[in-house]
Please model this.
Amino acid sequence: MDDTALDDGALDDGALDGNAIGGLLIEVFGTEMTTAVATCGSCGAASQVAELVVYMPGLGTVVRCRSCDAMLMTFVQIRGVVCVDLEGLASLG
Amino acid sequence: MAGTAVRGRLNTWLTATVGAVTEETARARTLRLEVPGWAGHRAGQHVDVRLTAEDGYQAERAYSIASAPGEPLAITVELVDDGEVSPWLTREARPGDLMEVRGPIGGYFVWEPGLGAPLLLAAGGSGVVPLRSMLRERSRAGSTVPVRLLYSSRSLDDVIYRAELDAAPAGVEVIHALTRSQPPGWTGYARRVDKRMLAEVAWPAAPGDGASKPLAYVCGPTSFVETVAAALVDLGYPPVRVRTERFGASGR
Model:
């Protein structure tokens, strides 16, 4: 295994965590949400939003459960409008 | 739960003026930001920075706040070679330049003196930035909480806040790991952070109730954070006592 590649994080799959979407969530919900508890609609795992797995490849934002990898939330921003899909969540609060 | 479409009705972006600029390393600098209407922040929080090109193209990135609450707002930014925002912040921005910021953001990766417990801070690269805010807040608040900072950098020249960390106050131990190159005579760690290193450096996760357990803050590239957090849990840290913030593959 090449140590340089590891140093550069080349083995990462680009995953961030819920801290990274704090600003986006303030825009959507009007309040700080990273300490809100999200409950997965698939496996029932409950965790703070900051601990969820987040992918931000550019076109949109995908939030997944750290326990079962189910998709919990998606956000797509188009011309100042944020489209929000929370179908994967059992609850958020 | 359902979904919706939200128009960006909340005017959450504020105009920031670049103030004093401090070169920290060849690739990282600290920028003071003057933001009228700034609400103040907590140690460990970040801001989103938005730049708008002449053709209207916008790019935003999140940057950790480097200063303590009560100090003037400052961020430290490390250059990402193919980045959209960091090249301007680290190479072009001059005092008086304007940009937009949104924040402060975050309530999870936040430290306050009242939390007590020995603190373990683990940083990979520019992951040291929010931890530096915590260290400055500890001093500013007169806290005597014992702290160990384990800080992984590629080389000594890549260590951000080096002089400040060399002069760390009583009760704060700074342990460096240099992963790529080490100066002649280096006696410190010369490899990436691993479980064996954490077993030597981290406060023992003594049995007892939650509040007396050490509290860990881990910040850096995703692979660094995953490695450190998993090792700390293996060493007996309750997962709820390990707070994490991931910068992604190449840093902010």
Q: What stands out?
A: Residues 128-140 of chain B form the longest helix (13 residues).
